[in-house]
């Protein structure tokens, strides 16, 4: 079942200084994001805004390939949290392989990043002409000996590192037909 936002939803910092979303009816959603990673005041309590709702539905739509509704909602709510509250990030592109084809992503687009022979799947939650903030949808992955990108971890990368998953799907479809 997909959750539908309403005017009782509220963002707040929980006991563990983790960003939480009160969904009403005694339901809470806990993000993995700690206060030190966020731009919000101690004791913050804010409603789930009209902009949050728009982002939520944009992200849900782009996550249509995930068939489990609970996983779609979890990914969409974490993406809204990053878009709304995450501290600005500096690009960390050096972990990822530069691509021959430059890709300018859209908000909510699922993209790939190549690292150590693997391809991670991420969702774009903020984009500009040169770099994008993304949320990982992959299992936790070591980027090097000391840095790991957890599931729903946020990272900013230059757009020349992004792999269009839509273009890969189209190429694979042509090969099957072809």
UniProtKB/TrEMBL annotation:
GO terms for biological process: division septum assembly. One of its GO terms (cellular component) is cytoplasm. It is found in: Cytoplasm. Its main location: cytoplasm. Keywords: Cell cycle, Cell division, Cytoplasm, Septation. It comes from the Bacteria. The keyword Plastid does not apply. Belongs to the ZapC family. Contributes to the efficiency of the cell division process by stabilizing the polymeric form of the cell division protein FtsZ. Acts by promoting interactions between FtsZ protofilaments and suppressing the GTPase activity of FtsZ. This is Cell division protein ZapC. It comes from Zobellella denitrificans.
């Amino acid at each position: 079942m997909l959750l539908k936002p309403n005017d009782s939803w509220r963002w707040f910092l929980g006991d563990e200084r983790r960003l939480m979303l009160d969904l009403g009816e005694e339901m809470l959603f806990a993000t993995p994001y700690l206060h030190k990673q966020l731009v919000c005041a101690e004791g913050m309590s804010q409603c789930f805004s009209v902009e949050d709702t728009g982002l939520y539905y944009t992200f849900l739509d782009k996550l249509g390939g995930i068939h489990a509704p609970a996983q779609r909602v979890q990914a969409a709510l974490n993406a809204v949290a990053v878009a709304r509250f995450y501290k600005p990030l500096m690009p960390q592109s050096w972990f990822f392989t530069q691509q021959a084809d430059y890709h300018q992503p859209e908000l909510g687009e699922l993209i790939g990043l190549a690292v150590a022979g693997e391809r991670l799947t991420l969702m774009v939650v903020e984009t500009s002409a040169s770099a994008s903030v993304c949320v990982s949808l992959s299992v936790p992955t070591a980027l090097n000996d000391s840095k790991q990108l957890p599931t729903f971890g946020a990272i900013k990368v230059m757009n020349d590192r992004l792999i269009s998953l839509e273009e890969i799907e189209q190429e694979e479809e042509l090969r099957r037909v072809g």
